[in-house]
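Appendix B. One record, verbatim.
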Amino acid sequence: MINKQIQMFGSPATSMWALLWLAAFAINVNSSERKEFQFKHHNNEEMYDAILQVRDKCPNITSLYRLSEDSIEGRPLLVLVFSVHPTEHKPMDPEFKYIANMHGNEVLGRELLLKLADYFCEEYKAGNEDIVKLITKTRIHLMPSMNPDGWQRSTDDGGSNDLIGRDNAEGVDLNRNFPDLDRIVFDNEAYYKDINNHLMQMVDHLSQPVQPETKAVMQMIMSIPFVASANLHGGDLVANYPYDASRYGNEQGEYATSPDDDTFKWLALSYANYHADMANPNRMPCRGGDTNFGKEGGITNGAKWYSIRGGMQDFNYLSSNDFEITLELGCDKYTKESELEKEWNRNKNAIINLIWQSHIGIKGIIKDAATLKPIVNAFIKVVNVTNGILSPILHDVTSVQDGDYYRLLTNGDYHVTASMDGYLSSTKLVTVENKFHSEAKILNFDLQPIIIPSTYSKKRKRLAYSNTITGDKLHVF
């Protein structure tokens, strides 16, 4: 009996292969023997073992869940959570996620997340003040591999081919497989429609079938109110930010600005500046003819570099409240095993510092002023008024299940408006000053309900898609 080893989203059919390895590792992780972390290429079974070992070493600050779909070849997609409330969302604590190994032959991120999990566990137990504070104030989700099938193909081939193992077992590039929300937002701009967020309900067709791995991650994105995130890749050394798709069809060289361009630059620099070499202007580019990203601060707009459609980064931003960037962690896709420890040391400060950025800007709770009950799906609109110049940021976020909201912002002065159908809007002026590794400024709203005579009342529909936690329960396997 596995005895509550893993929690699950949904209730997918479980393959016999998955049952066998889960049973095996349930026995292994309950043994008295504890393994020290090794810098190596963990195969898929060893990866699951390493995750379960951490969960077992630090049960009070971790939980483990399995996504709603397995990989094509039946391998479970697991996520390890760190928090002092690891099994549930807590109001005012932002949610952050890292997803690695989306391209199966890009392996460094996978090993970094396994090491990060072990590091969090050990440092929390040792009383590291910064790590204790981070885990106390944040709910952190680590997914070491989105494409374990591709990892297996790449590894079986020797890890030397830039293409073998990149795709999933069906030959699909998962970072081109998400619904193309860039198409929708660019069409909205062309027709002067001010709709730039929570766009899933506007999807009218898909360019290709959604793969199980993509579907599983989509459900996670739409079920958990993530605030910030990153996906970990390899092949260059740069922090990439939205938009990834060009507005006008240019394959590269076109800077595709999002409404939150300043905030995305902040996030990208929060990684690049804390990495040992990413922002170094004197470093060489990965290959002859490549852009020297070091001379650009170690960051790039995605479409300016090269345009893609159906990417996970832009999907997060346009479908939910989540601000995601893409991290290219090194010139080699399949990092040599002898380099893994060095790469951990080069990335450690950056990978932790980026999680802290889920605390920049403002956060608060929106309530009904009459009943003091939380208001779900209220809109938060922001206008930058720094230096007396009014600059609307045309990308709203919404309040989630307990009326809590999180709005990432850079330093400056802002008019912030909370609005909801049936209530009077409320606007407040706030000055944001993001201090090092500190929580966001709290800005709460109590909205006054509008009293409408019953003879004139009508039900009104709102053009939005909620990013609140769904009613789906986490089932114990």
